Amino acid sequence: MNNSTVRHILDTIGAMYPGAHCELNHNNAFELTIAVLLSAQCTDETVNKVTKDLFQKYKTPQDYVSVPIEELEQDIRRIGLYRNKAKHIHQLCLILIEQYGSEVPEAHDELVKLPGVGRKTANVVVSNAFGVPAIAVDTHVERVSKRLGLAGWKDSVLEVEKKLMKRVPRDEWTLTHHRLIFFGRYHCKAQNPMCQVCPLLDLCREGKKRMKTSVVRKNKD
C-alpha cells in the first residue's frame, strides 16, 4: 500500500471522527490503568458504569490493598472475568506501592511488567496519560486495519501494530488509534458494518464481498 492511499484512509476517517478520544473515564494515569485493565473483553460503557462508583471509593493503590480481595470482587462483579481482574488489581497496587512510590511508571517496559497489563494496555496508558505516541491494537483497530488492507488477514496483533507504526506518521499514532477505534465501533462494525454508505468501500476487501453478496441476494429475490 502506497503512502497516498494511507493518507487518504487517515484523512477520510479523520474527517468522520475528528473528535475521537479515549472513552474510558479517568482523572489520572492510575485510574486509566485500572480502567483499561478492566476493559479486557468488556465494553467501555460497562467499565465506565463500574468505575463511576469504584473511583469514588478507591483513590490510591493503598485503598485497593486495604480491603479484602472479596470486597473488591463484589465492587467490580459486573465486569467480565472480575475475580481474575480483582487479583491483578490487588497485585498491581502492591507493586506500585513497593516499587514505584504508588505512582504508575511512565516507561512502557515497566508498565508491561505489571500484573494484568499487556502491550495494548501499556500503549493506551503511555499515549493518553503521558503523551507518548503509541498505537494500541484492540479488536476494532485490528479489524479495520485488516479490512482496509493496512495489515494482512493473518497478521498477529503485534504485526498489525508494527505495520501501522510504519505507515502512520509518528505524531499521528495516538490520534489514529482513537479514530480507528471510533470507525470500527460506530461504522465498520464486526457484524453489521455500514458498507453501503462507507467512503472507503473501494479499499475494503470484505466490504466489496459483502456488497456483491447483497446484490446477488436482491437479484434472486
From TrEMBL:
[4Fe-4S] cluster binds at residues 188, 195, 198, 204. This is Endonuclease III. Binds 1 [4Fe-4S] cluster. It catalyses: 2'-deoxyribonucleotide-(2'-deoxyribose 5'-phosphate)-2'-deoxyribonucleotide-DNA = a 3'-end 2'-deoxyribonucleotide-(2,3-dehydro-2,3-deoxyribose 5'-phosphate)-DNA + a 5'-end 5'-phospho-2'-deoxyribonucleoside-DNA + H(+). Residues 38-186 form the HhH-GPD domain. Signal peptide: none annotated. Its EC number is 4.2.99.18. One of its GO terms (molecular function) is metal ion binding. DNA repair enzyme that has both DNA N-glycosylase activity and AP-lyase activity. The DNA N-glycosylase activity releases various damaged pyrimidines from DNA by cleaving the N-glycosidic bond, leaving an AP (apurinic/apyrimidinic) site. The AP-lyase activity cleaves the phosphodiester bond 3' to the AP site by a beta-elimination, leaving a 3'-terminal unsaturated sugar and a product with a terminal 5'-phosphate. One of its GO terms (biological process) is base-excision repair, AP site formation. Belongs to the Nth/MutY family. Transmembrane segments: none annotated. Keywords: 4Fe-4S, DNA damage, DNA repair, DNA-binding, Endonuclease, Glycosidase, Hydrolase, Iron, Iron-sulfur, Lyase, Metal-binding, Nuclease. It comes from the Bacteria. It is an enzyme of class 4 (lyase). InterPro entries: DNA_glycosylase, Endonuclease-III-like_CS2, Endonuclease3_FeS-loop_motif, HhH-GPD_domain, HhH_base_excis_C, HhH_motif, Nth. Its cofactor is [4Fe-4S] cluster.
